Hints:
Blueprint: H1 3-14, H2 36-39, H3 57-81, H4 84-105, H5 109-128, H6 148-172, H7 181-184, E1 188-191, E2 197-201, E3 205-206, H8 216-226, H9 238-251, H10 260-268, H11 276-292, H12 295-305, E4 307-309, E5 312-313, H13 315-323, H14 332-340, H15 345-348, H16 354-373, H17 379-382, H18 403-419, H19 423-427, E6 431-435, H20 439-459, H21 461-464, E7 467-475, E8 480-484, H22 509-519, E9 537-539, E10 547-548, E11 551-552, E12 573-575, H23 576-581, H24 586-595, H25 597-607, H26 630-641, E13 645-646, E14 652-657, E15 660-662, E16 670-671, H27 675-692, H28 694-697, E17 703-709, E18 715-722, E19 725-733, H29 756-765
Parallel strand pairs: 1-6, 3-5
Antiparallel strand pairs: 1-2, 4-5, 6-14, 7-8, 7-19, 9-12, 10-11, 13-16, 14-15, 17-18, 18-19
Helix pairs in contact: 8-14, 8-16, 10-11, 10-12, 14-16, 20-29, 22-24, 22-25, 22-27, 24-25
Amino acid sequence: MTDASxxxxxxxxxxxxxxxxxxxxxxxxxxxxxxxxxxxxxxxxPPPEPSAPAGGRAERRRGxxxxxxxxxxxxxxxxxxxxxxxxxxxxxxxxxxVAARARLIGPLAPYAxxxxxxxxxxAPYAxxxxxxxxxxxxxxxxxxxPSWRQSLGAVLSSxxxxxxxxxxxxxxxxxxxxxxxxxxxxxNVYFWSDGTPMARTGWVQRQAMPLRDIPPDVRWxxxxxxxxxxxxxxxxxxxxxxRALFRTLGEGDTEGGSTITQQYVKNVYLxxxxxxxxxxxxxxxxxxxxxxxxxxxxxxGYLNTSWFGRGTYGIQRAAQAYYGKDVGxxxxxxxxxxxxxxxxxxxxxxTLGKANHARAVERWSWILDRMxxxxxxxxxxxxxxxxxxxxxxxxxxxxxxxxxxYLVELASQYAKKAAHLTDKQFDLGGYQIYTTFxxxxxxxxxxxxxxxxxxxxxxxxxxxxxxxxxxxxxxxDGRILAVYGGPDxxxxxxxxxxxxxxxxxxxxxxxVYAAGLEHGVHTSRGGPATPVTPESVYDGDDGxxxxxxxxxxxxxxxxxxxxxxxxxxxxxxxxxxEAMARSVNTPFMQLGMDAGLADVRRTAEASGLLSSSIxxxxxxxxxxxxTPSAIRMASxxxxxxxxxxxxxxxxxxxxxxxxxxxxxxxxxxxxxxGAKVAQQVTEAxxxxxxxxxxxxxxxRTGVSGKAGTTEKxxxxxxxxxxxxxxxxxxxxRIDLARSLEPLPLEGLAGTSANSVPYALWxxxxxxx
Length: 768
């Protein structure tokens, strides 16, 4: 070390002989070297013993607060001596506790900041109200009685705590996002062609209606009965809640007092459990909902979700169930009767007994008077409603069953397809399906088949056990007017009117006739077509071999194919028109070969038969090896009645959802065969009807038809047209428990002179 450094160090050590220092040097603290035992310990003098506070209440409080500070210091020393690991663990625990408190108190922070200035003002007074027991200057039991300041403080504190609790509850309550499924599910309603209800499907009877479609008289009847201050209240009724609370606590049950907003919340978001906790939650949600939704939206939701009895939810279904009309057609008197049901349909449905009727009349009158009192009904109009509006005895929106299920099945399938609706969309409900089904025709057809079934069971129960009757009536414009699908859809879901199971037999020959008239015949392979007319002559003998331009037609077994007539009869040379009139088969089997089986197939499909039902393209095609349904056979004959234009059969003419129209893919007419050809086929079928049934044909025009038989006697048909409506009837036997293979009729279809299919056809068309 140099001398200079030593000198400098010495001057710094004793401080003598120093030169004046700069200002920044004087700011440094110079500490002499200290002993280790002195520098490593912090010596704190013991605190003085606290003296007993004297003086007034304020001094005693200050003394107490001073004394309370000592343990904190001691605690601090103790924590300072704790081990590093334990300190870290405590720190982590404290952090978790702080985080938990933050999550709990976080939502209340905005409200705490708002209340802070008021808390500072109130704090001095609150400290003065702090109770000190026993009270000085009092003797005996009076020492324990709080002062008026303390009593007032307790009351104010209670109100403050209650207010804080309600504010907290309101802040922490959210409007549920999940709505009760039954509150939104609706039913689908089906209507006859005349607009009257036919059936409904779904778990509940409900149809949501926009508030604009609900008349003001209906709205105010409900408001007068349930909540006349609805448009001015905050969503809850403090008076009603208090009354319900006291009744619940005092007698163990709950009472009304809910506003319409509260009732709507209960219907849509909560359960029907009558508990205090549910009532409190209902009130909190109602307050929030009143701020989140408009009054009209709440009222609309309430009117569409409320229970009105008779299995109905919502004012629209209630109007239909009790008065058989839409809500838009209700008057104030009928609306008041429906509003009375909101108090309890089991007590106020007037059709359930005399006591119910008396209660309903009394409440109905009271509601009308209330409407006058609140200025929503004039005294003059009130004077008109002196007679109680008696509702219908039963709900016309009955459940489906038996035959109507087949109608619903057809209509729902078509509606989903034409409206491009998925099964999920359709099952949500709310649809009104206006069908094409004619109530009178449906009843006539059903009654006729029901009668035939009973007769068959009497004649031969064993054969009748496997009997099936399929039937359908289709208008020339494609409307399906009636069907018979079976005795009961719940027992036999198999729809006989829409089944493609049994062959059409000789009922198919009109399509062969139309193909020959439309396309002509080919006498040589690849040569030009030769025209065919109704007067063209063919061989009508039984067993005539079927020929091609090259010679006889041989089947795969090496046998010549021949045509046969019913009963093996021979008719010699016969015109095609006469052959159709007399049901001679052999000419049409040869005509199919001459015209070309491909053209026969195309003509049948263009007329309405489904390609999937067309049989193999062999000579038997002309004899009806195809298996069309009754609906499609009726549709095909309707093409001839429509001058050769075909419209796909349809069962639904209009669909709405809660009154709003749904776009449908509407079938359009298209040319199947020429108008002249259609007319010629119709004339031949008219001759057939007159030849077979001269008595029924007498004095009637516009009626045509033809019977159909099959080679193995597995099906019997009658298809014809009357008044531009074509009807197809088929009778066959199948044991559905075993297979879909047709069984021999064994007399089930009657005889040619007493044909069961014709009897059903004539009854369905009004000719029987």
